[in-house]
Amino acid sequence: MFRKPKAKGAIRQRNTEAWDVPDAENQDKPSVNEIKKAAVPRATISFDADEGADSFFKLKKDKKKVEELKRQHRLEEEAEQICKQEKERKEALEKIVKKEKQSREDKKTNNEKQKYLDKYRDKSAKHISNTESFDYDEDLNIDGDAINSVSNKFASVFEGIPDSRAVFEAKKRRERARREGNQDGYIPLDDTQKLKSKNERNRLIREDENDDSDEECANNFYSARELLRSEEDRRREEQERFLEREHGDVDESDRKKDEDSENEEWERQQIRKAIGQLRTEKRNTSQLFGHVAPIEDDTAMDMDIDLEMDVQVIGKPDFSGPKNTGGVIKIEDILAKLKLRIQERDEALNFRKEEKRKLHQNIEENKALIAKLESELPTQSTKYTMYQELRVYSRRLLECLNEKVAEINGIVDKRRACGRAKTMRIMSRRRQDMRDQHAECMQGKSAKMGEAATRSAEREARRGRRRRERETTLSGNSHEEGLSTDDEETTQQTASDKKTYDEVEAVASVLFADALDEYSDLRKVLGRMIDWLAVDSKSFQDAYVYLCLPKLCSPYVRLEMLQADVLNNETVLTSMQWFKTAVLAGSENAEIDQTHDILVELAPAIIEKVVVPFLIDTVKEEWDPMSLRQTRNLATFCSIFEKLPNLTEKSKQFNALLMAIRERICDALTNDLFMPIFMPNMIEQPSCRQFHDRQYWSCIKLIRSINALSSIISVAARFELVVEKCVNSHCVMAFRTGVKNEVSVERKIRGLFTELDDALLMMGGRTSFRQLISSLQIVAEAQSQAGRSFHKEIDKFLMKLER
After folding, report:
1. Which residues, listed in sequence order, are joined to residue 34 by a DSSP beta bridge?
2. Are 604 and 646 in contact (CB under 8 A)?
3. Residue 36, φ and ψ in degrees, nearest 5
4. Is the pTM of this model over 0.90?
5. Which is more confident, 779 or 261?
6. The most confident of 90-94, 106-110, 486-490, 516-520, by mean pLDDT
């Protein structure tokens, strides 16, 4: 019913007094720990409170576990002893090595100081006491007890190691052998077999390192203690040193030694640097004063060579250093040097003064510029406002012209195509009529059949209408057949052409109807540009606006020339509206000079870049050289060209216009001029005589057309076209093959004399007019035989040619 409470004192305890005693296992009675339970207080309700209170527990030890613990304890003790011995050995060796190194470094420092002093006392001679060169080995302070203790512990390792006395004797014997050189055991200085220690690693050795006579390794003696250390101990020692340095446990003495070695190295470098500077200063001083530089001993000093050998100077050495061979320093040299320094100082002072002057000048210029900018502020504000307005206006103007230029080109092409078609029809009909008439003269009435008869009837009808028109308009004036132009067309064709012209005119008149006056009126467009020129002429010229003005005016000029029709209507260039606007450009602006170069050259530039190219296309496609009316209208329009300074032989556009005119005239000479040659009996026939006379007067008409263009064609070009290609080729043939004693001949010759002006006669000589002179002489003789007085006029003309 009720659970029995636990006894709190029944806890197992171990007897730890003699658990690890070796003889405990051999006891006769097994070890048993008797643990008596603690008395438990009686429970109030328990029926058996004292049950089991007096019972005992017997515990047996685990033998395997006890043995394992003993073995671990024994191993730990052995490891502690080994570590302690190893530590003692290391400390003894390190103590010995440190003492030896410290002694050697002290001796080396004293020796280097002595070398340095001896070198400056006497550089030429040194007396070395060999007997005392290695006395420092006797002064080594080595702890003998430490060595004996280490030797006793490691007896197998230290067997055969010589003591310090033996090492000292070996060093003395080696030095004696090196000095005397003739005893046994001599070590040659040029021995190429390098002494190697047992623990030294193989590596590549240069030739100079193989030389055993190198002073750096002449006195490097290897200690037996260092040779005894195995590779494993060396590696372990290096690792421990690395760990000590890594954790900052470096010995204070080692750090001091490193600092001392660095200081010594720094002192040596400073000494070398001072000596080098001293030599350089001496050499420069000698060169400055013109003395011979003293011969210096540039051989390596003793201090530059690291020797592990003590030297001792005995006695006072004799001075055998370099002597002063530089000569005597004169006062003039010192004065010259001082003057040179004064001159350099003056130059530097002048340079600073010039810099100061430039700085003051820059400051003054900047102040003047600031004042100028402040004074120009209102002007700049006006310019800015003008540029903003002009920017907006230019963009809108270009948008407007981009739309209108395409329409202008369209109507110009349409008008030009109509005129070209009309010119080609008239020229083709004229040339066909010339072939038909020549065929009628050669074949008679048999040639008038079919289409030829129709063409002949139409030709005669047109001639009759022209004759009746001349009788009403040219009453009292004589007219020759061949001088009139057969340009009459049918009523249907004329109506069609007129309709095309009217359409073009209607489109041209309303082309700018949807645009404001600021964009459709050339005067206002130029006014905006001229305002820019008046406000800021420099930016106007820098932007090359004056070169763009002709192109800007091109749509307006071409549109007006299209409406003028310069070939069919007599038009004067100076009377056109665009010309007046260009000439008067800037007259409304009082801020600009009217004689400005840009204003003066504006109209000629428009003529050269816009008008002349327009005329080139017109001449090539619409002009007929055999039409006197078209030629005279063209000459009237181009009469101002000779007054313009830019239309010269250097102008490409003007040369292109002249070339187009020449090509059209040459084409007429080839296809429209034909002088028939008839037999004497055929020339008496009326039809043949009329055809012969008509062709002669056609040649005179072409000569008149050429002379009408004398304002733009040079005299040399006219002489070539008139004299060489017309007179000598066609007129001379007409004089020789035609009738010579009739009244009609007088009219022919007088017409020719009228066209040959003085400029043409002076251009050529007797050779050029040789054929004409012979032909006129024949005609003059026939007139004289016929009893006519016209031969006198011919004689006067011939005398004029001969002069």
Report:
1. 58
2. yes
3. -95, 135
4. no
5. 779
6. 516-520
Q: How far apart are CA 162 and CA 554, in angstroms?
A: 121
Structure tokens at 531: 């305002």
Largest CA distance in the chain: 203
- Residue 83: pLDDT band (50, 70, 90) is confident
> DSSP per residue over 281-306, as a string?
HHHHHHHHTTPPPPP---SPPGGGS-
Residue 601: which of 591, 609, 612, 590 has the closest Cα? 609
Torsion sign across C-alpha atoms 80, 85, 87, 88: positive
Rounded distance, CA 801 to CA 765, Å?
Answer: 7
**Average of per-residue pLDDT values in the chain:** 77
Q: Is the pLDDT of residue 487 over 70?
A: yes
786 vs 282, 604, 774, 780, 793, CA distance in Å? 128, 58, 19, 10, 15
* Type of residue at 35: I
- Number of H-type helices and E-type strands within the chain: 29, 2
Residues with Cβ < 8 Å from 484, sequence gap 6 or more? 466, 470
**Cβ atoms < 10 Å from Cβ of 68:** 11
Q: 370: which 2 tokens?
A: 């600031």
Which of the four pLDDT bands, split at 50, 70 and 90, describes residue 117?
A: low
Tokens encoding 89: 């050995």
pLDDT band at 480 (very low <50, low <70, confident <90, very high): confident
| Percent of the chain surpassing pLDDT 90 | 32
For the cut 80, the answer to whether the pLDDT of residue 215 exceeds it is no
- Domains of the chain, by residue range, sit at 673-802
- Note whether 563 and 547 are within 8 A (CB): no
DSSP state of 722: I
3-state secondary structure of 475: coil
Nearest to 481 by CA among 755, 747, 727: 747
